[in-house]
Amino acid sequence: MKTIGVDVGGTFTDLVYCDLASGVLDIHKIATTPDDPSRGVLQGVLKLCEMSGVSPSEIDYLFHGTTTATNAVLEHNGVTSGMITNDGFRDIVHIGRHQRVQHYSIRQELPWQDRPLVKRRHRKTAPGRLAPPTGAEIEPLDEEAVRRAAEELKEEGVSAVAICFLFSYLNSCHEDRAREIVVEVMPEAFVTTSSFVAPQFREFERFTTAALSAFIGPKVREYIVRLQGALQDAGFSGELRIMASNGGAATAAMVSDKPTLTLLSGLAAGVLGGAWIGQQLGRNDLITFDIGGTSADIGIVADGAFAETDARSSSIAGYPLLSPMIDIHTIGAGGGSIAHVDRGGAFRVGPRSAGAVPGPAAYGQGGVEPTVTDANLVLGRLDADDFLGGGMKLDREAARTAVAGLAKQLGLSMEEAAEGVLAVINSNMANAIRSRTVQKGIDPRGFALGAFGGAGPLHGAEVAAMLSIREVIVPPYPGITSAMGLLTTDVKYDATTTEFQISTAIDIDRLNRDLETMEADLSARFDADHIDSAAVRFERASDLRYVGQGYELRVPLPQGSINESNLKEVWDAFHKLHAAEYGHAFPESPVEIVNVKVAGIGEIDKLKALRPIEGGSLEEATLRTGDCVFRIDGQLSHFETTFYDRRKLPVGRPFPGPAIVLQSDSTTVIPPGDSAVVHETGSMIITLGGTAQ
């Protein structure tokens, strides 16, 4: 089977082709086309097919990590959307909850108020009410009121509608009927319901998730239709799969209906790719460290598994989101991050980025502000004549001019300013990793750091040193690891049911019935995707809390029939997890099951392993020596540094730093005092302060 993975980043679009039968693998990078990312995707796919000697018609699957949904939210440029909800509840999405990001600030920014997804004038109401705990109807839906609301929204130029009624997670009948009416009135509009996108309790989060779906829905659908059409016109007849935030692939049709599935699309692929590389080396505890042109994305892989976000922390651009997502932390720190002195006189790097256009000054495309890439070039850590495998020439003088301007502002030499840029950005990234590890009771010293993305290997060793991490893993193709991650995943769908049962009065029959119903629904989805039932497995989980608590912890549920015996194991696991998370537990207190969840995983053919490499010799790999600047023991020093061609490095033979390893998709820095060795899988292992093994 022949597959292609495509990951669209802020600066570059990364592509990888793999013939799963023969193991042949080719990679390609192309500049992202921000005006229409599908154009860059198509150009990249056609070029990669040409490089690999295959026709687009021979490709069976194209796996795609897309930023269309993410960018629409981050840039707040979705469509004009509307909402229909219960009488008296039009302002739920404005009021939110009593919790605030900054509890005592009266001037803090609240995205759902400052940048509403649905403006108040487009939020309409209709009589009708359901009631807990069963979702029984206590007031029928006023269908004429729904029709009038739809007609008003149509006149107001709304192109997407979110239908959000109270307690629809218990009974979706009112939302379903309202949707039918709105579709009749507005057949061209994107129409969704809160019970479809997030069938669980917490109305503010559920309504906001539905509003997000409406806000980005038309753009995501238009992008997918445009991309599918362009691919078909180019001769592609395989299947397009879109990376979802939960770490699985989804069909184009599923993503068109549930666009919120893709809000962390490309980021999730990076964690998958990093975890897969770690497994190839037997490293199951890994911090994935993916640095691109605009951001640094951090994920935690423990015992070979990645964590999912919970209801307390699931959000995008500050908007709460009820959707299964890999726990990924993103900061504005990348190769294009701009170094500047802010209005208060503080020296900062990022989050503003030069992006793909104009890009860093070194790109020679009109950029004049100093960036992280420019600083690396000034310090000699990038080869101006061998960037992207020689596919792009860097303008050294433009980089020096940009950094010199910053140095003048700071009263420093050019080299001090450039090193300061790296020190600040590295500190920002190290602090971000601490927030996901140390602040959560995880000791990062027991993990390896998987450094990838175009800029990850440039910074990995120095960031690891700040965290006392001893080992950095650089994948064979670090710049396209996210694209490779797309080829390692399965199809994955999730289902959730709000349960609200207490351990002291549990209805086991109901619990089993709900789990079986969700598994049957997921099985039907896989049947529609033509995935053999023998290739489908289910993973169960529950959201548990002590009675009276506000938020939950996720605890796995056993497969098969639930009974009192295995439920006792679930309660015990919750107490243990609560103690680990909060430092205490209450084993004698009753436990409440809030939600039960089922993840259906449909296994498909995927990348199993890379071909073992033969390598060459250090002599063959040596390109030249050059002057590089590093800070050692608090002092800036110049070092004669060896530049190597990664393709020719020997397998199993350590080599010392300072060294710069060049390849077509990234550059790796091995600082003085560290060493590196190439593993037979092709990954490079950097050992800090010692000899690589």
UniProtKB/TrEMBL annotation:
Example of a GO MF term: 5-oxoprolinase (ATP-hydrolyzing) activity
CDD domains: NUDIX_Hydrolase
Domain (Acetophenone carboxylase-like C-terminal): residue spans on this chain: 511-679
InterPro entries in the cross-refs: ACX-like_C, ATPase_NBD, Hydant_A_N, Hydantoinase_A, Oxoprolinase-like
Pfam families: Hydant_A_C, Hydant_A_N, Hydantoinase_A
Domain Hydantoinase A/oxoprolinase, first and last residues per copy: 206-494
GO biological process: glutathione metabolic process
All residue ranges annotated as the Hydantoinase/oxoprolinase N-terminal domain in the record: 4-185
GO cellular component: cytosol
Protein name: Hydantoinase/oxoprolinase family protein
Organism: Pikeienuella piscinae
Organism ancestry: Bacteria, Pseudomonadati, Pseudomonadota, Alphaproteobacteria, Rhodobacterales
